Amino acid sequence: MLPSPIFQTDKGKLYKGDCLKNMPTLPSESIDCFFADPPFNLNKSYGSSVNDNLAEGKYLQWCYDWIDEGIRLLKPGGSFFLYNLPKWNIPLSNHIAKQLIFKNWIAIEIKFSLPIQGRLYPSHYSLLYYVKGKKPNTFNPPRVPLQICRHCGGEIKDYGGYKNKLNPKGINLSDVWSDIPPVRHKKYKNREANALSLKLMDRILDISTKEGDIVLDPFGGSGTTYIAAELKKRKWIGIELSTTDEIVNRFSNIAIEREYYDALQENKNVLFTKEALKLRKKNGKHNGKYNIEHQHEPTQEPLLDL
Ligand SMILES: C[S@@+](CC[C@H](N)C(=O)[O-])C[C@H]1O[C@@H](n2cnc3c(N)ncnc32)[C@H](O)[C@@H]1O
User: Fold this and answer.
1) Cβ partners under 8 Å of residue 34, min gap 6
2) In ligand 1, which atom is closest to the CA atom of 20?
């Protein structure tokens, strides 16, 4: 039997409890997108009900259990995302690959991390992307702006004689995402640690869902997935074992999130963001060779599909 949600909007429902108890109450093949950002077993404190320091085998088995539930809930053609450390996503990916079709291992660059003795400096999290069946129901990656120097506005990569052939709607999204900011700004910072950037969730939902689709995230935290889904007019199902107060508070201040969300929408599917154009102008960079006068107009045929 379905438990009662602790909070709901006209698009979503939040359940307080253990995802391994809540997910089995949902019907098979009922969701379009599954996203999970579980505890990484790093001995962090998530409240007394979460043990984030399990023996390796136990942690993996626990993950296999909710992964299998997530796969059961996914519609054919639905998308499955798992955000974790590379160390865990290697065995977890092998497990998922037995049931779903692999799309990408996406490296999300970490801006500020701590060195680990005897290892190379860790600079990325892993985001696994799988699809149930051969063809995704939705695959709609946004195009991204050219990377520029944040001081002078100059291009980081040299496009040589091809500048006028670049798609005015931006560059093809790759599987290395270096443009996801850590959530540091106090205005947007919702908890001490672990809150994901709204930009990350906006992108994942852009790629894999359309308006009205249903998104499930079994590890709510501060509710970034639910806020992104709400703002993007997707339906959502949330579960959180510890306190849900942060999520509920965040929804009561959703106007603040909307400001940032609106800015995100302006900065995709263009070759240069408005900020970039300002910076380039200030530093005397010429845009003459770029075919950008139409970049805010509906999609044109790409000339050079980079
Ligand atoms: C890494 S955080 C998720 C952060 C979230 N993505 C955000 O942007 O705020 C993981 C969350 O999972 C919750 N959690 C841990 N075990 C759980 C379980 N069995 N069922 C539901 N939630 C759980 C923790 O309390 C924690 O808030």
Assistant:
1) 70, 71, 73, 74, 78, 79, 80, 81, 215, 216, 217
2) 19
Q: What is the pairing mode between strands 31-36 and 214-217?
A: parallel
Q: Whose CA is nearest to atom 7 of ligand 1?
A: 195
- The closest alpha carbon to 102, from 131, 125, 77, belongs to 131
pLDDT tens column, 162-216: 888 889 899 999 999 999 988 855 555 555 557 999 999 999 999 999 999 999 9
Distance of CA 79 to the CA centre of its chain: 12
Rounded distance from Cα 220 to ligand 1 centre (Å): 5
| Nearest-CA residue for atom 17 of ligand 1 | 241
Convert the pLDDT of each residue in 262-290 to its tens digit.
Answer: 999 999 999 999 889 989 988 888 887 78
**7-141+179-271: CATH number:** 3.40.50.150
The token pair at 190 is 């919702």
Every domain of the chain and the residues it spans: 7-141+179-271, 145-172+272-306
